[in-house]
Structures are given as C-alpha cells and as structure tokens.
C-alpha cells in the first residue's frame, strides 16, 4: 500500500500592519489573531483525535514572527513530534520548488510520517496548494485558515480536500 500523508497548510493569524512596524518580518499577531489561531488549533486537535492520530509528526514553520507565534499557539494545543523552522516558506518562497522538496523529503522520511503541518503566509500558502494539487487553482486563505490535503509522496501527487476556518467569538 502506498504511503499517504495528511498535510495541513496553515496561514498565520491576523497580524499588525507592516506600516506600523516598518518591517514585514517582525509583524506580531494581534490579540484577535491569537484568538483565531487558538480556535483553529482547537479544531485541528479535535480533528486529529477523531482520526486516531492525535499528533503532528512534523511541523514546518516560516521564520517570520507572526508564523512563529502562530506555531507556538498551535503547539500549545496540538501535540507535535518535530518542529522545524524553514526559510523556504516565507511570503516570497517558491511554492513549486518547495513542493518538490516536500515530496522528496516525505519519501525519505517514509511511513513513520503521516501528519504534517506548515505554517506560512499569503501568497505562498495559496500557491503551495496549487503546486501540490495540479487540479486546484490558487485559493484565498483567510487568516488562520487551514487547508487539508492528502499527499501521495511516491507519485508526487496531492489532493486538496477542504479549507477549514473556525471563527472566534466576537
């Protein structure tokens, strides 16, 4: 049986405007951004438990502040076996090249990896979904949105399943 990997592509939560801080890389989450990440992290934890695989095997995180903060909130709720900062998944990252690397890396890691998450930014997350599933067009990601894909690393194929967005109470 071929290896299947569930991939959760997560956009960071709402962040402070770049103009206020004079730098995109240092933008932190807003209080609302932290709330929306927490709500979506709780949804993901519940979903993983329902799948009888309650932990992420691998979490790849952009080095930018808002993505690292999103990952911190996520890992406070979702058990994560291995977390790695990845400089290739910034807003300017090349989604096609990263998709190729991801398929090769998943083949290398083998069957012990079944659940993977990526925390990144627009437009990278949108282009990544389209690069992994050639039948999908780039989609708009709401902040803290989670796209679920099923990957078949041996065939270098992915299938977009759905976008999950849980809204925090106002």
From TrEMBL:
GO terms for cellular component: cytoplasm. GO terms for molecular function: protein histidine phosphatase activity. The gene is sixA. This is Phosphohistidine phosphatase SixA. InterPro entries: His_Pase_superF_clade-1, His_PPase_superfam, SixA. NCBIfam families: sixA (TIGR00249). It comes from the Bacteria. It holds the Pfam family His_Phos_1.
């Amino acid at each position: 049986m071929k290896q299947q990997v569930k991939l959760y592509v997560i956009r960071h939560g709402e962040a402070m405007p770049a103009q206020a801080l004079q730098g995109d890389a240092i933008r932190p989450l807003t209080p609302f951004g932290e709330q929306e990440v927490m709500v979506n992290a709780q949804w993901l934890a519940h979903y993983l438990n329902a799948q009888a695989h309650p932990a992420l095997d691998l979490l790849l995180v952009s080095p930018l502040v808002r993505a690292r903060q999103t990952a911190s909130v996520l890992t406070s709720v979702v058990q994560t076996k291995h977390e790695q900062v990845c400089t290739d998944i910034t807003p300017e990252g090349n989604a096609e090249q990263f998709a190729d690397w991801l398929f090769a890396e998943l083949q290398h890691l083998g069957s012990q990896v079944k659940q993977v998450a990526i925390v990144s930014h627009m437009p990278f997350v949108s282009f990544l979904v389209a690069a992994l599933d050639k039948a999908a067009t780039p989609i708009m990601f709401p902040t803290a949105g989670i796209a679920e894909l099923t990957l078949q690393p041996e065939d270098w194929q992915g299938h977009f399943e759905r976008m999950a967005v849980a809204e925090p109470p106002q």
